[in-house]
Amino acid sequence: MPIVSTIKMTARQFINLGEDPVGVRLELVEGEVAIGPSLIPEHSFIDRMLSFIVGNHVLTFDLGRLYGGVNTLFGLTDVRRPDLIYFQKSRVHLVGPKAIEGPPDLCVEIISPSSETIDKVDKFEQYEAAGVAHYWIIDPAERTARAWELQNGKYILVGEGRGEEIVHFSPFVDLAIPLAKLWHPPTQ
Question: Which CATH superfamily is domain 39-181 in?
Answer without folding.
Answer: tt1808, chain A (3.90.1570.10)
